[in-house]
């Protein structure tokens, strides 16, 4: 069977800011070397932050509104996608993110359907309330087995789908996200501005990258940092933006920390403790010169920001959250039945206690403070971990990952 003439439709709710959207773009670009690829979105309300060069079709169905509006829009999305699949003579439709998965499955005709699952479902703090119950108890258990194949980005998502939602084991396969290793390494060499360099020269820098959201759980990191800065000079740099911007800056100030905000008119100087740099076209130039990359997420999929920091050769200190960090930093270890309560020096970085358990939060934050202090005072260990981090990320090159994707699509087409 010739693959080059096969029509692949990639579906995602939107192409606004997000890790899944970046992965969607990368898949679109790479799969176009092997298939005829088109993209579809529910709407373009968030713009197209990740243009791939492939044709993009909007179903032009908005979100939001009353519960009745949402039901109607859901039906419109299914109807319009079904028509689009027929018009494009789609052979395989690959959906990214849960909302797109439902629409993909419910519009299924003769084409094959593949779902790409980007994150934990059992631990996702956004899945709550009556709609969350509907998603966990009805939609996922009732619909996911209709897929021809389900691709998870992390091995630890698989038992969630099998045990939590009754998905058939034989339908599931893990293909990790890939990273543009050489491109990221090259961008990381871009020099800081003189003002930025002065900040990095003034004290060791902890850096974290990602959206300012409940998933990334940055608030407790500020508490640990506030304790750390009482022990030694250190600065904390946030690269990214999000809906918790005001809450986090207020929390930092309440802890007595001096806060710089890139969106304000303040001058960038070494006089601050915490730096919110906002969205950056090249986040890697802020990561590479840092002493440590800190990653306090409450849950993940296969975290792009963590992998990118490791490519930059920065030692990673991350929560052992579901899912992804352990698979990257300690690939030969099993996921523990209960959360770790102390620092774990893994093969390629440091795994840390979660920072979202109220009963142990104070002691967990102390573990973070102590471990960060130890690493900041051990340059030889930081250098060792940085080299290992970069070495590990060679396992996730574009070529290795997409050989797996092409094989899966070929297998599905022939089944």
Summarize the structure.
InterPro entries: Glyco_trans_4-like_N. With 415 residues, the protein is α/β, with parallel strands linked by helices.
Structural commentary:
- It comes from Hymenobacter koreensis.
- Pfam families: Glyco_trans_1_4, Glyco_transf_4.
- This is Glycosyltransferase.
- This protein is of the alpha/beta class and 415 residues long.
- The chain folds into two domains: 7-178 and 397-414, Glycogen Phosphorylase B (Rossmann fold); 181-396, 3-Layer(aba) Sandwich (Rossmann fold), CATH 3.40.50.
- Helices cover 40% and strands 16% of the residues.
- It has 15 helices and 15 strands.
- The protein has helices at 19-31, 67-88, 98-106, 129-143, 157-165, 181-187, 194-202, 219-228, 245-254, 284-287, 304-311, 325-329, 361-376, 379-392, 398-414; strands at 7-12, 36-41, 55-58, 92-96, 112-117, 149-152, 172-174, 205-209, 235-239, 259-261, 274-276, 292-295, 316-319, 344-346, 349-352.
- An eight-stranded mixed beta sheet has the order 10-11-9-8-12-13-15-14, sandwiched between helices.
- β14 and β15 form a beta hairpin.
- α8 packs across α13 (361-376).
- The chain is globular and about 65 Å long.
- The mean pLDDT is 95.
């Amino acid at each position: 069977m010739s693959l080059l003439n096969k029509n692949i439709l990639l579906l995602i709710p939107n192409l606004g800011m997000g890790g899944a959207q970046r992965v969607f773009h990368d898949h679109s670009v790479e799969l176009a070397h092997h298939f005829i690829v088109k993209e579809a979105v529910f709407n373009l309300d968030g713009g197209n932050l990740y243009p791939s060069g492939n044709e993009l079709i909007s179903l032009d169905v908005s979100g939001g509104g009353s519960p009745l509006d949402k039901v109607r829009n859901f039906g419109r999305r299914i109807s319009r996608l079904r028509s689009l699949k027929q018009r494009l003579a789609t052979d395989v439709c690959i959906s990214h993110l849960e909302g797109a998965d439902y629409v993909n499955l419910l519009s299924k005709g003769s084409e094959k359907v593949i779902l790409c699952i980007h994150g934990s479902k059992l631990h996702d703090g956004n899945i709550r309330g009556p709609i969350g119950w509907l998603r966990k108890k009805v939609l996922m258990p009732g619909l996911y087995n209709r897929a021809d194949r389900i691709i998870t980005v992390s091995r630890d998502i698989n038992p969630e789908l099998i045990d939590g939602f009754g998905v058939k084991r034989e339908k599931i396969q893990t293909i990790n996200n890939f990273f543009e290793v050489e491109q990221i390494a090259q961008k990381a060499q871009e020099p800081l501005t003189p003002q930025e360099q002065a900040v990095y020269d003034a004290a060791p820098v902890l850096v974290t990258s990602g959206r300012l959201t409940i998933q990334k759980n940055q608030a407790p990191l500020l508490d640990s940092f506030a304790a750390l800065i009482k022990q030694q000079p250190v600065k904390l740099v946030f690269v990214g933006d999000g809906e918790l911007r005001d809450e986090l800056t207020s929390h930092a100030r309440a802890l007595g920390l001096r806060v710089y905000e890139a969106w304000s008119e303040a001058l960038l100087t070494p006089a601050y403790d915490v730096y919110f740099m906002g969205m950056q076209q090249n986040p890697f130039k802020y990561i590479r010169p840092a002493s440590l990359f800190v990653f306090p997420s409450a849950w993940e999929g296969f975290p792009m920001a963590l992998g990118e920091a490791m490519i930059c050769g920065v030692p990673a200190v991350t929560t052992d959250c579901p899912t992804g960090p352990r698979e990257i930093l300690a690939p030969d270890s099993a996921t523990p039945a209960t959360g770790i309560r102390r620092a774990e020096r893994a093969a390629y970085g440091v795994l840390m206690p979660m920072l979202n358990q109220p009963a142990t939060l104070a002691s967990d934050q102390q573990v973070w403070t102590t471990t960060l202090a130890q690493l900041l005072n051990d340059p030889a260990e930081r250098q060792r971990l940085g080299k290992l981090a970069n070495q590990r990320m060679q396992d996730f090159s574009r070529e290795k990952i997409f050989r797996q994707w092409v094989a899966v699509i070929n297998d599905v087409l022939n089944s």
